[in-house]
Structures are given as structure tokens and as C-alpha cells.
Amino acid sequence: MTYGNTVVWKPSSLVPLLAYRLAKALVEAGLPDGVLNLVYGEAEAGSAIVGHPGVDAVSFTGSTDVGRAVIARCGELGKPVQTEMGGKNASVVLADADLGHAAEQVCLGAFRSTGQKCTATSRLIVASQVADELLERVAERAARLVVGDPLSPEVEMGPLVSSAARERVSAGVRLAVGEGAKPLAGASPLEREGWFVPPTVLDLPGTGVDFWRTELFGPVVGAVRASSTEEAFGLANLSDHGLSAAVFTRDLGVALSAVERLEVGVLHVNSESAGTFPYVPFGGAKQSGFGPKEQGRAAREFYTRTVTVYLGAPA
Predict the structure, then answer these.
(1) What CA–CA distance (Å, rounded) separates 194 from 213?
(2) 118 has catalytic annotation
């Protein structure tokens, strides 16, 4: 099926080479001239694109604050808009879970891509009966992660995207520790040149700390304990964001209950929070998303203007 939409794409200013290579590959594959238009720039370029009269619909991926501004501007202009914004994603490990599997998946969700995914695991909620063992497994796996040049085959986690990102993540960890979080792995700066931070696991004193609310967008996961499934689901929902979550359990009934009760747009059962497929709808609840979802049929419907035609017979 073919759709007639052309695209003006302004990527993040932090990843110009990646955007160029993707656009170049599409052109080399035969994409006609003018279908994809790559534009580099900072915030001013994004604002100009949103406001341009030739742009009929806007899709935004980025922070919640910027997303709200895009939503407001599109409202003024009467333009359809879809946004995928921040996340503070939770993994819930219940008492009946396979702890070895859960620990590995939590670490994949938290540390793969150096935690720089909107769906990365940031909060960990563990049944109190198994919390000590699960956190020991997660911390041990985090401590064994090989950090370095991501082009090296043995490396499991690379650097952050910029020095500003490194400082933001490091400052967030320092603040959490200052508020009473206990470091179980990482937390100390790495003695190497580059924008590296260690994979970090924090045992949080509760949900009142800033870390529970603020998205760091880095390889840091903070854990709290829950005395029941009811409390665990409540803690997972205790966030302004609702993008992705993961639940680890052997109980199908509990898994189905999570589908109903967790306030997220994407739910994984017994797998990491950060995995998605491009052919199914994607998007979040609460402050993580606004408007129609992205990808799959949802994207086709958003970008396509339909016409309902009533055809009558001539007199």
C-alpha cells in the first residue's frame, strides 16, 4: 500500500551523522527526490517547521517540556499532532518470578544503549520477599558489564551522547545518594577519558526522592520494595509518566491484571521494558504521550486524510 505523504525530518542535533546515513540509505534504495527532506538545526529550526504553512501534521519525539510547547503551538495552528515524550519506566518483579531471568532483563532494559532510550528501565519495584536476592543479582550483573568503546566486540555499554548528558546523569546520582539512596553498583565516576558513567543500581529510601520523578536518560536504575502485588502496581503507577513497563511473574492471571491496571502505553511480561517492534502501535499514557500513537496502522491513520464519499444514482 502506498501513501502520498512527504516528510521534513529534523533529527536531534546530537545525532546528525546517524540521520544522514539513514536518509542516504533510503535515497540509494530508490526513494524519489523530495519525499524525505533532512533538515539540521537547533530549536529554532524545529519551531519554524512546526509553524510552516506547508506542514500539515507534526510528529514529535523528545522531552515532555518541549512536547507540551509543540502541542500548544499545533493547537493554535489547528494542526494534527502526535507526541512521544518522557518516560520513567518501571519493572515490577513479583515473588514468583524467575529471578535470574528477571535480573538479566532488568539490566538489559536499564543499561543497553547506555540507558538512552525513552523506554529504558529507570524504576525497579521488587516484592519484599525476594528483594535482597534480586537486587544482589542485578548489582552483580551491573558490576560485570564491560564499559568502553562500543565498536569493540567485548564492550557491553558505551558512553553517553554528550558531556552535558554525563553531568546530568552524574548530578542525578549524587542527588539521590544525598537523599538517602544506597549505591549497590556504580555511582562513582569512571576513571577514563570520555562521556562515560558506570551502570548504577540504587536502593532507594522511598518514593519521595527526586530520582523517582526525574528522567535522567542514562544507565541508572533505582529500586524500592513492595509488600504485595497491589502495592507494587500502585508504585509503578506513581509517576507522571506512563510510557512503558515490565512485569515479571509466572502467574498468567496476575499478568492479565497488569494489562488492566498499569497506566502505560507499552507493557512487557517477562521481558525488558525497552524492546518494541516497528510494525505495531507505540506510544504512552499520561505525560508520556499526546495524540494518536506512532508506528504500524496508527501511523498510517495519522498521516492519511480520509474522505467519506456518498455516491448517489443520477435521477
Answers:
(1) 28
(2) yes
Task: Please give the Cα distance from 103 to 1 (Å, whole number).
Answer: 42
Chain position carrying cell 501534521: 57
Catalytic hit among 74, 107, 118, 215:
118
Do the beta carbons of residue 302 and residue 57 sit within 8 Å?
A: yes
Residue 312 grid coordinates: 448517489
**Residue 237: its pLDDT value, please?**
98
Cβ neighbourhood burial of 60 (10 Å; 0-12, 13-18, 19+): buried
Task: Return the number of other C-beta atoms located less than 10 Å from residue 213's C-beta.
Answer: 14
Summarised one tens digit per residue, pLDDT across range 239-249 is 999 999 999 99
Q: What is the pLDDT of residues 163-211, one digit of tens each?
A: 999 999 999 999 999 999 999 999 888 888 899 999 999 999 999 999 9
Q: Name the residue with cell 496508527.
A: 298
- CA-to-CA distance for 39 and 219, rounded, in angstroms? 30
Q: Is the pLDDT of residue 298 over 60?
A: yes
Dihedral over Cα of 139, 140, 145, 146: its sign? positive
Which one from 28, 74, 76, 84 is the annotated catalytic residue? 84
DSSP secondary structure, 40-79, as one string:
--SHHHHHHHHH-TT---EEEES-HHHHHHHHHHHHHHT-
Residue whose C-alpha is closest to residue 242's, from 96, 98, 89: 89
Report the C-alpha gap between 244 and 88 in whole angstroms.
8
Q: What is the DSSP letter of 210?
A: G
**Dihedral Cα 223, 229, 235, 236, nearest 10 deg:** 80
pLDDT at 120: 97
Reply yes or no on whether 84 is catalytic.
yes
The grid cell for 83 is 507526541
Task: Please tell me the distance from the alpha carbon of residue 42 to that of residue 46, in angstroms, as a whole number.
Answer: 7
- Give tens-digit pLDDT for 246-260: 999 999 999 999 999
Question: 158, 149 in Cβ contact below 8 A?
Answer: yes
